Amino acid sequence: TCALPIFAELDARYVAGEAAAYSQTWSVIAQIHAAFSRHELPAIDWIVVDHRRGTLLSSSNMNEAIRAFWDLTPAVNMQIEMVHRLNSFGAVATHTLRGTSPEGFEAEWRMIYLVIVEGDGIERVEMFDEADLDAALARFDELTPQTSQPENAASRVHARLTACVAARDWNGLSEI
User: Fold this and answer.
1) pTM for this entry
2) Which end of the chain is more exposed for a tag (fewer CB within 10 A), N or C?
């Protein structure tokens, strides 16, 4: 997600290794980051929710906010620092924006973001302050579809066994 060769190599290793099972999801996320760093404005038709304190970004003003950001910091680069959660549905990661204003002011912004991917595009982005990782992970768990275990005879017996062990009901356990 960065023009620097070391980060490109690290990204390639991550996709080939730890993220291999979710390479499609990760590819969509990495493409958006790379486009942002190249100052390519994506067609933003996704839902944007900004949980950060003191910010007012939304789906309706995202393009305008990105253009204003690029005007203030034309030399900007976005890097993914750490992936906290990744599955076929999306990811929670820490990313950093580093930029320099035309006057030479250097700045860095770090935040947690949650990205939901659908097909070849982004469906939803939620941003959190760096200190709110637990809230971001909890929100990701809320949004991620839960797979339910099919109920059958074996699953009912397992539930009864688990309940007996939890209650220390050894007689009930032996009857099963």
Assistant:
1) 0.71
2) C
